[in-house]
From TrEMBL:
Keywords recorded for this protein, A-Z: ANK repeat
Gene3D superfamilies in alphabetical order: Ankyrin repeat-containing domain (1.25.40.20)
Keyword set includes Nucleotide-binding: no
The name this protein goes by in its record: Uncharacterized protein
Start-end of each ANK repeat: 75-96
InterPro entries: Ankyrin_rpt (IPR002110), Ankyrin_rpt-contain_sf (IPR036770)
């Protein structure tokens, strides 16, 4: 049977895209798998979508209160990768701060030291 998460989580995608926490929270409260569900073709989580849209740091914060932001999309990007790629400095700083006590950090410093990602870390 084909994966129907793309259509199943379309309301979540729209909520994340527009920073609509009320709708997203209702979805999360009724389906705990929605927190880390891969939605649409890029297999993004709601956190990836919200960060890419760049509308609401509050939405991101509320999501990070519920999950560790380490899920990867189809490009193998974490939410931090996405925030850095879109130059969302406040989000990058928040994600780093929110996970500073994780051992090991999902965003270990070695990530910023690789040539592939060094440009994304220049504003930290």
């Amino acid at each position: 049977m084909a994966d129907n998460s793309a259509t199943r989580y379309l309301p979540l995608y729209n909520a994340a895209l527009h920073g609509d926490w009320i709708t997203a929270k209702r979805i999360f409260d009724s389906d705990s798998n929605a927190l880390t569900a891969k939605i649409l073709g890029l297999h993004e989580t709601a956190l990836h979508v919200s960060i890419s849209a760049g509308h609401s740091i509050e939405f991101v914060k509320k999501l990070v209160d519920r999950i560790l932001p380490q899920e990867r999309d189809s490009s193998n990007d974490t939410p931090l990768h996405r925030a850095a790629a879109y130059a969302h400095k406040e989000t990058v700083q928040y994600l780093l701060l929110a996970t500073k006590d994780e051992d090991p950090s999902p965003f270990a410093k070695r990530w910023c030291q690789t040539s592939q990602f060094a440009d994304h870390c220049r504003f930290l």
